[in-house]
Amino acid sequence: MTELFAALSLQMGYNATLVAVGAALLGAAAGVTGTFLFLRKRALVSDAISHATLPGVGIAFMVMVALGGEGRSLIGLMTGSAISAVLGLLCVGWLTRHTRLSEDASIGAVLSVFFGFGVVLLTVIQTMSAGRQAGLESFLLGATAGMLRSEAVVIALGGSLAVVLVVLLRRPMTLAAFDPEYTAGAGWPLARIDFAMMGLVTAVTVVGLKIVGLILIVALLIIPPVAARFWSARSGHVAALAGLIGGISGFVGAAISASAPSLPTGPIIVLVGSAIFVVSLLVAPERGVLATLVRRQRFHRAVHLRQGLLSLANGQPIYEPLTRRLLQREGLLRGDGVPTAAGSKAASEMGRDEQRWQILRADPALESAAAQYDGLTDVGAVLTPDQIAAIDAKLPRATPEVMP
Amino acid sequence: MSGAEFVPLSLTPLLIGSFAAMACALPGNFLVLRRQALIGDAISHVVLPGIVVAFLLTGMVATWPMMLGAGGAALIAVLLIEAVRRIGRIEPGAAMGVVFTTMFAGGVLLLELSDTSSVHLDVEHALYGNLESLIWLDAFGWHSLFEAEALRGVPPELWRMAAVLVAVIGFIALFWRALAISSFDEGFARTLGLRTGALGGALVAVSAIAAVAAFDAVGSIIVIAMFICPPAAARMMTNQLGRQVAWSMVFAVTSAVLGYVFAGYGPLWLGFDNSVSAAGMIAVVSGIILALAALFGPHRARRGAPLAG
Amino acid sequence: MTQNDIPSMAQRSDIATAALAIRGMTVSYGEKPAVFSVDLTVPRGAMMAIIGPNGAGKSTLLKAALGVVPTLSGEAYVFGKPLAQMRARIAYVPQRASVDWDFPARVIDVVAMGLYRELGLLGRMTGAHRARAAESLARVGMSDFAHRQIGQLSGGQQQRVFLARALAQEADLYLLDEPFAGVDAATEKAIIAVLQALKDQGKTVVAVHHDLATVKDYFDHVFLINKSRIAEGPVEAAFTPDNLQKAYGGRLVTAQLDPASQITPVVPPRKDLASGLAPKGSGTVGGAG
Predict the structure, then answer these.
(1) Considering only CB atoms, which chain C residues are within 8 Å of B178?
(2) Pair (A160, A257) in one structural domain
(3) How many domains does chain C divide into?
(4) Residue B69 belongs to what domain range?
(5) Among A27-36, A162-171, A264-273, which is the least confidently predicted range?
(6) Are C75 and C25 in contact (CB under 8 A)?
(7) Distance (Å, rounded) from C-alpha C194 to C-alpha C207?
(8) CB-based contacts of B205: which residues, under 8 Å, 6+ apart?
(9) Is residue B156 a part of any domain in this protein?
(10) Any CB–CB contact under 8 A between C54 and chain B?
(11) The whole model's pTM is what?
(12) DSSP per-residue letters across A375-386
């Protein structure tokens, strides 16, 4: 526990601190980048990109060994992974555009085939003399334990670079994500913006390989924006919040991992983000599950009550058992189906509201108010008292009595 | 190659690989047509937490608890994806991404936290499977196929995979017409009285069963690849559903057989002396088939379909 | 009379005699009613247009009546019985845009889908079935296209195939969702001829329709809706400027009721409040119509 606290307060040594800062920056960049992907409804493209890095890692290792090196240079491996990620991305794009395959099938095909090829290469590497200690498996799930100083520096720098890119590209990407048709119509090079966005996804993926691992890096691009979406409907806020959630996940996850070196880093970072997501899903105001259930319940009640009262106002029988139960519970209807005094009053008020709507909707001058009709809203909510008085003047003299 | 060498060493892995490929590709046809291709991806990720939890509960590496655990995890994942999608109003891809990464991360962490060092249960095995090890040492040639004694030594994965394949074929055959109608026009299907929700759920459940059984035998890579690549390639060969499914079976078996052979003998032909991952190679071959279909398939492009609306 | 001894819904004479009776139907997408407390009665043998502005709930009402979308309240009765018992007598033609035309199927395969209720899961297609599918296709003038891939059809041809599928069902009540949307003039003429022939055989036809100029020519009954029912009845009685004003709001010009005019009313699209963030074109599902 004390170790975790030490890690959280950046007192675990220089390497761990660098990694934690790098993970936080990476998480922030991933959260913001992922928001744009999410808004474009292309979240799972990142899954293809991340799985497609594996053959690049393998080939880069073999090339470096063939050139006489040790093969473990992080920069070299990252370069290789970036190249094969871009190839995978191009394959997804080509399949979607030039064949009849939909994007999801293209993504699935590319991720499984590239990953399969990567696994083939890994088994080749395992048989190479230099390969046994290569530790390339750590790229699958991420590992920060025993990281070299130079690697930690690369990660911290990579995270910073990703954040800088996000800041530079945020405006065109917001446009493209929010309204692609308008963006294209206004003369923005949509294809190039998309390409830049995918480049950013690739950058985040490549930097994240060592920390989070290629299977789970996609979580860092998807979970923060989805969690953030529960708290806000404005794209700018969602992006900022996703960055924050991603940053916290990266930092806390890396810190926990530093205090428990035997655990793989990636899953911990992801689970921190997942925890934030679950909380958001449940308790966020407006869009959260609890708020939605309460609101829906209220809405159903309102519908049934209004429908029931209108039936009473028109002297029609009520068939829906739920409607009758609700009316009875409100004291508006007796057990034998006859309205109470309060029920008759409420019904005739409801009937009058409906009559007002009839007149309102027939009046061209009140068109904008009429457009707000949805069956459930009271006239009082869309008109001023003066307008209502004017309408009431047109009502038939006697409001019909409710006949029990 | 003589039967004395082929039957014990290659026959069972080839059969298991082919059965697994077919069992996944069959429901995969409908998943691809319904734009649910990535359900296969999601399922294959959540199988890991399923078997880990099953192991923690039972304390042993036994087949049936693990199959149940994996199946249960797939079911939970699908329900969670639906819940996040509907209640949170999140698009399906993102909902899927959230759920399967979370469950996979949980599975890996549980695996690392629990003491599984004594048993053969690790992430890499889950990913790659171990098709090469499913050999039939009691066989001494083709004649062993007719010897009860030898047949008892057949790896149990073969029987399991065969049973699952038969079940999958039974499901698809029974609901063929209903699946075709509800995949093409769900609204119309409902007016016929078809329970499209239940049917879609059953399709995912059958896919999960196929995935779990195949995963147990050959690892999750083949599972994802076989759900998607053979059906996708087959779609570009024909414009009729029946023929598409037939092509997908041909492609699935071709991938399994060629992949296994290339993995085992390819390196030898190239002068190396070690084989490579058969699961990975099967995925690669299915990808090559898909690439060829995408380049030369007679019905590879969308054609003459005016934009709806 | 108290509520407890009212006759059950199905016993009521207005419901028992109607081809389709919808009572108290409310449907919502999210927390906004798309259709509120609608009653609709389609007499047997009627040819009825459901009209109303965009987003008024026309298609939603049809889908809800058929159980395609879930309802908050309300029931639908077909020839006096609850919908679930009468599915065999209904044929539904969805909006063309609602399906994936890239599906691997030929025209004849789609028409044969109309035979599902007879064939069941495993029933064998007999020669008689094939003949019926071919005849349905002939009735919409698409025989030459039987073996064409559906993705290669034009919009009008797709619509005819959908109609042929409905004909193959040999139903008594035909429900069509925007059958004339985006089709060429020849197809429109062919479709209306088929529908009129159905009516002449005593079948009942209900269609969501958006072209006010042709209502009087094509239909004998009309149902006006904008979230709730505005009016219903024979065209002469219900298709009045007054009712149209109520349904469409201020923009409606009486000139548009002139059959010679092809202008349809321009109603400003309503802002979709529910999807504040989602990119364009991703608003509420199926809200149109």
Answers:
(1) 116, 121
(2) yes
(3) 1
(4) 3-219
(5) A162-171
(6) yes
(7) 13
(8) B74, B75
(9) yes
(10) no
(11) 0.88
(12) SSS-GGGTS-HH
